[in-house]
Amino acid sequence: MKVWQLGFTGVRNRVLPFFMIFLASISQSTAEDIVSGGLGLSKQLWEAKQGSPDLKCPSNLPYTCYEGGKYMVSYMNDHIWILEIYLHPLPYTFKNPGISIEESRSLSKNFVPSDSRFIKTYKSQSGSNVDLYMSESLKSLEPSFSANTPGVWTGGEVGNFIVIHSGTDEVQLIIIATGNNP
């Protein structure tokens, strides 16, 4: 009640707005707080880092294309929930040599939340290595990536994500996505 009274008298009138702004700023934890090079970032932060979408890419894709097809991004409520990293951008060909699984894991760490905790590795039906992670900061996306939205957290719990190192001998494509559904 005393805080409310501060809003009605003289000089104290300035205290209430400042106090309210301060409370609002410390009580909001949003996806903007996620420290990541890709997954979970807002479109604005991703484009500040990677630039505008590439107009050379096909326009009929369900993804937004960047850097000549090197990055294909799927947004949900303006946050990245799927990121594909092509090691050999457009025109796509898998005739070029890939990279080792160790190199792929090292590269993928640049695009996942910094608080990622490794859970396990398994093989997908196609034979690709899949790394499963948990990120507490990704949980803050739950209001944007509703657990009831089809595909977002499929096969996992809120905060799970996978890194698919696509290829059997050499990795040609890295897919980073929420959930646990390779």
Bin the strand percentage: 15-25%
Q: What gross morphology would you assign?
A: globular
Main sheet?
7 strands, antiparallel
Sequence of secondary-structure elements: HHHEEEHEEEE
Features:
182 residues, alpha+beta, 2 domains, seven-stranded antiparallel sheet, 4 helices, 19% helix, globular, disordered N terminus
Explain what the structure shows.
It is a single chain. With 182 residues, the chain is of the alpha+beta class. It has helices at 2-6, 15-27, 43-50, 101-108; strands at 64-66, 71-76, 79-86, 117-123, 129-134, 160-166, 173-178. The protein has a seven-stranded antiparallel beta sheet with strand order 1-2-3-7-6-5-4, with helices on one face. A hairpin with a 2-residue loop joins strand 2 and strand 3. The longest helix is centred in the first third of the chain and has 13 residues, at 15-27. Residues 1-31 have low confidence and may be disordered.
Structure at a glance:
This protein is of the alpha+beta class and 182 residues long.
List the helices and strands and how they pair.
Elements: H1 2-6, H2 15-27, H3 43-50, E1 64-66, E2 71-76, E3 79-86, H4 101-108, E4 117-123, E5 129-134, E6 160-166, E7 173-178
